[in-house]
Design a protein that fits this description.
Layout (H helix, E strand, L loop, with lengths): L7 E5 L4 H12 L3 E6 L2 H11 L4 E5 L5 H15 L4 E4 L15 H26 L4 E6 L12 H21 L4 E8 L6 H5 L4 H14 L12 H12 L10 E4 L18 H5 L4 H17 L1
Parallel strand pairs: 1-2, 1-4, 2-3, 4-5, 5-6, 6-7
Length: 295
């Protein structure tokens, strides 16, 4: 586990999913945390669970610039400094295609997923520029390939990844490191919430996804929030002090290649187009080996 003793962190979207895992991992690693979220009941429960000496909850809608600035300002006010910011809050956003583009949904998605990362970074700089710090931004595997999420979400997440690289260059003079994490299929309530399901039902769906989704990726299991949180903790720690401007895939291998590259039971697209099944391909391979052995 990374060592975050003596560090103060702000985590947005901290009351559930990846953000909640971040709270748990960061506090276990020794950090004190300002947890920002719009879920007041869950946020206050976190403060009760960990105690105000380790965690303070601040209501924060990250699309409201005053609230976003307030959550960054809360860290030095409560704990004396701000060393780590994890711009993590998010949602599935509008799911319309380019042809059917919902322009209001586009603006809302960009504000939630991209503008708040710009602004959260901006509001953190005054608290970090004299001593350095670490900023981590949650992107997605949808930033690297089509087919994982709706187009507006995916473009926003690509923006988050590239912004992190550019901000790392600009802020290096202050010894502020900026990195992006690109999670793969992580079992959280974001999938159910994107379908418009109530929060309680979306939470239950996350558990169903965790139980059933392992076959989707080479590693053989669905990702957990802690998989992302452990990477964030490492990047935020002194052990990661030589790392900035990076884009880190944490995806169980989902992006290594098409399914047939890691699943022997899946058909190659080339063979599939020729009408050759995996079983027939294996028979052809064995026949070729036998013929070679006899020659």
């Amino acid at each position: 586990m990374a060592d975050l003793k003596g560090k103060v962190a702000v985590i947005t979207g901290a009351a559930s999913g990846i953000g909640l895992a971040g709270v748990e991992v960061f506090i276990a690693a020794g950090a004190r945390v300002i947890a920002g979220d719009i879920q007041d009941e869950k946020g206050k429960a976190l403060e009760t669970r960990f105690g105000p000496e380790k965690l303070r909850f601040v209501h924060c809608d990250v699309t409201d610039m005053d609230q976003l600035k307030a959550v960054m300002d809360a860290a030095p006010a409560a704990f004396g400094s701000l060393d780590i910011v994890w711009n993590n809050a998010g949602h599935g956003g509008t799911n319309t295609s380019v042809e059917e583009l919902d322009l209001d949904g586009y603006d809302q998605t960009m504000n939630l997923l991209l503008k708040q990362v710009f602004a959260g970074t901006k509001f953190a700089i005054p608290h970090m520029k004299d001593k350095g710090g670490a900023i981590i931004n949650t992107s997605s595997i949808s930033a690297v390939s089509a087919g994982y999420a709706p187009i507006t979400y995916s473009v926003a997440k690509k923006g988050v990844a590239h912004f992190s690289k550019l901000a790392a260059a600009e802020l290096s003079k202050y010894k502020i490191r900026v990195n992006a994490i690109l999670p793969g299929f992580i079992a959280t309530s974001i999938f159910g919430a994107s379908l418009g399901l109530p929060r309680e039902v979306a939470d239950q769906m996350a558990e169903m996804l965790y139980q059933a989704g392992g076959k989707m990726q080479p590693i053989g299991r669905v990702g957990k929030g802690t998989d992302i949180a452990e990477m964030a903790a490492f990047l935020a720690s002194d052990a990661g002090e030589f790392i900035t401007g990076g884009e880190f895939l944490v995806d169980g291998g989902m992006t290594v290649g098409p399914r047939h590259s890691w699943d022997a039971t899946a058909a190659s697209p080339v063979l599939e187009s020729l009408g050759i099944s995996p079983e027939q391909a294996e028979q052809m391979r064995l026949a070729q080996q036998a013929a070679a052995a006899q020659s």
